[in-house]
Amino acid sequence: MAVLERSYKRFEGVLSPEWSRFLIIPRHAVRNVFRSKLFTAFFALSFIWPLVCAILIYLHHNIEALGILQIDIRNLLPIDASFFQNYVIVQGTIGFFLAMLVGPQQVSRDLANNALPLFLCRPFTRSEYVVGKMSIVIILISTVTWIPGLILFLLQSYLEGWSWFVDNIWIASAIFIGSLVWILLLALMSQAISAWVKWLVAARAALLGLFFIPTVFAAIVNEIFQTRWGHIFDLRALIGNVWAGLFGTFARQGTERGEFRRNGIVTQIVFTEPPLWASWFVLFLICALCLWLLSRKVKAYEVVR
Amino acid sequence: MHSAAAVIDPQPNGDPFGVITLDGLSVSFGGRPILKDLHGELRGRAIGLLGPNGAGKTTLIHTLLGFHPPASGTARIFGRDIRAEANQIKSLIGYMPERDSFISKMSCIHFVRFMAELSGLPPAAALERAHEALFFVGLGEARYRNLDTYSLGMKQLAKLAQAIVHGPRLIFLDEPTNGLDPPARLRMIKMIREIRDSGQANIVLSSHLLRDVEECCEEIVILKEGRLVVYCNLEEERKANKKFLMLETRGDLNLFVAAVGQMGCECATTSDHRLKIILQQGTEIRDLYRLAAESRVQIRRLAYKRDSLEDIFLKAMENGSGAGQAGV
Predict the structure, then answer these.
(1) Is the pLDDT of residue A304 over 70?
(2) A9 and chain B: CB distance < 8 Å anywhere?
(3) B242-304 — its CATH code?
(4) Does the pLDDT value for residue A291 go beyond 90?
(5) Distance (Å, whole) CA B168 – CA B160
(6) How many Cβ pairs within 8 Å bridge chains A and B?
(7) In sequence order, what E strands does B113-263 have?
(8) Strands B20-29 vs B32-42: parallel, antiparallel or unpaired
(9) What's the complex ipTM?
(10) Min distance A28 CA to chain B CA atoms (Å)
(11) Mutating which of A12, A36, A122 best tests the B interface, going by the most B Cβ atoms within 10 A?
């Protein structure tokens, strides 16, 4: 109908495919997100480290540039698994702050404005809603983590040659899987907090707290019990172990040594990290808990019993 | 008005299925029954849902929308089961919630377009229809304003726009005139009637305001304590009560009343000059005028009278202590 016709008419056209509808949420949300100057500035700054990494890779393969800059190639970081692991750690940390800026407002805003009935009265399920909201965080953090990471890997492969690419293809999968695990964890945790904490500042503080308070708790447990099993409470240590496992740098023993002096006798203790599977398992439990929390809150109406 | 099985007209658009079929539908929250064994088939273009607070009107709408799972029984919308075909049903319906429901920090056009896209419209069509819907509800000039700046009346219109933007076959309107001033209420009623008269969509209107329902709906369903106590087809009711007359007269009524009684009609004087008459089969209005002339009585005013919706509602509240089933 024409605008001026002003009569009610059914829609007779072709509908969009159902599987793609969850993408409508990030498409509209991303536009809103970039209205914030603070976020846009932070997002732009988050590409500095990938740029530095790209320059380092380039310098490794350009003797003339090294000569001009008077840098000894032996002083440069080697381009290996550790290089890419450090890249993932830095960008993962930046991703955390991006998630803190974007994630906590997604569900809480809809809950505060009673918008959920409007979503769920349409051919749009609760799962699609959650996936749609999560994908805002997933898309944004992907653009600063594994996407530039894989571009760096391809740059290195291009400069180093085909054989390097074939020998190190597992690094690409480690970049991708390691980043994805982290992104999924951030997306789920930020949405779960968003669903339960309506006040934005409190939600952001809660997300920050969830990453740093357990670190303190884990340190206390480790000190009291002279162990490293406290790390299973520490999200940063857990994801660090997972990344180390993926990049082949994980070592259960010997990462830290304690030294005790009693009656003039010096005792050295080698602390043992929790096994890798324990880190994966705890991360899985955290994700399951977040999904359960989301399922409790993401409803059209809350029934008061 | 029926509280037992009744025959109703087929649906105007010729759909073989009823708009809403209730098949022993019960809903409980935490073991507390809210809707109890509802049965019936509703086919009207505009169906009014009435009942006192806590009767279960909103719960019924929410259950039909798939927000609450039925404890037992089921319901069908256009022949589709709400348990098994929830997503197909949702693509056929629009919903205007009672409470304020928005997405903050969005312009109205953006909001309505977003809702249209979620209903499955492609982006370009969604934008086009969002403009159309907002012009239809009268928000054309204000469509680029942020929703947070809208007045209550404008928010109601925006909610209506999002409910109709995708052109649904069935529209649930939950208290659409809440908080509207008289002119805005009239505009809302006019739009609902326009949608109804377009024949493109059926409407389920839940309201506390009997006048709104009476002005918009052909059928009404009255809920009380979670049970469907009354079904009434207002059109049929109007036709059925055509033989009930109110007369205002001048002159000596005794002769006239006696003559009317001899014709077999029930007659009662309500005041000096007023008469209530229930006409018998075969009695015509002109017979009354003839008798009046013979009795030297002037008929100054003659009006058909029927039970108002208020009468029906109050009767239902007095009598309908949970009839259990109102076969509609």
Answers:
(1) no
(2) yes
(3) 3.30.70
(4) yes
(5) 12
(6) 131
(7) 170-174, 202-206, 219-224, 227-233, 244-250
(8) antiparallel
(9) 0.84
(10) 8
(11) A122
